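Protein Entry — a single chain follows
Next Lines — sequence and tokenised fold
***
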Amino acid sequence: MDLEDYLEKNGVWHRFLAKPETIHTADASRETGIQLNRITKNLVCKTHDGNYALLIVPGNRKVNLRKAAQVLNTRNVRLLGFEEAETVSGYAPGGTPSIYHKTRMNVVLDSALLDQETVFCGGGSRDRLLELNTQDVIRLENAIVADISE
């Protein structure tokens, strides 16, 4: 099942938005005119314990790995390189959505995103964004909501 099938099967409101191919949120914002704080960084990481996690933060903020480690109850967290992140998530960086990944991961959504009714994330490829209700991301991924950015 692909991302679109998953969304349809689960009755999730969504909207795909085509754009030129980008990797970074600032470039996606510039190309689409969408405010940077509404486009998420979906960062695949690995905990000290060997578990994978997805950290979701607004595009205009930086993830704080110390805060993320505390929330995940582990000693430390490291971001994965592009190749390993793609292997774990099933999506190329720049196209990683906030939901439905190849590997089941703990998901932490930055509390700053609660200010947005909807957010834009990678749409499964680098040439589109996916708009989702923020509460659907939390519900579908059983996400932990916490302050993990600065």
Notes: The CA atoms of residues 45 and 80 lie 5 Å apart.
